[in-house]
Give the backbone structure.
Amino acid sequence: MIPLRDTVRSRRFPLITIGLLLVNAFVFVQQVLAGRRAERLLLAYGLIPERFVHFADFGLPPLSPVRFLPLLTSMFFHGGLFHLLGNMLFLWIFADNIEDKLGRGRFTLFYLLCGVCAAFAQIAQDPESTIPMIGASGAIAGVLGAYLITFPRAKVLTLVPLFFIPWLVEVPAVVFLLLWFATQVLSAWMGFGHEMTGGVAVWAHIGGFLSGVVWMKLLEPRGRR
């Protein structure tokens, strides 16, 4: 199922959401322009669980920026154009309403916290992994979790490929998002807990989604609940 738009309209211009879209696009262009050096960028700025957990083996002090900075920078790198476009589509559809609900400052903090929590979920699942974890999907999963509890009665216009025939249907947000979360849990279960399932950090998705529910409850201004 591919979301196309939701039925909730923001009251304010989604400045931070658009800023995140532009930053992710800019970083991807830099990856493309880097050519053969792109792999070095991913190794430097992607989050490698083994390097984070066994930092001493890499000659890093406990509070080294090399150890902690990838918790943030990894959110803005992507493995390919479709990886980027898929993430940015979900961000564009769902994040503006969460930004509107939290306010720009709180939403920025919320987004980064969800991304960090998603990263820790993936690290906890496979601390020995040497694969750089990249992508905004963990933070965006947090946005989806927040949307679930904030706008459960919204509708999501969804494209459903049915025997190669595009079928457009409005799906309740609670159904769409719970189905999405269920696919992540199923993917994690079928992967038997080993590294990334099909190159996708599904545990980061699960951790990000659940953390989004929690952080939304904690950060939402009292007058807007």
Notes: The chain has a mean pLDDT of 91. The longest strand covers residues 155-162. The two ends are 30 Å apart (CA to CA). The beta strands are 2-6, 155-162, 165-172.
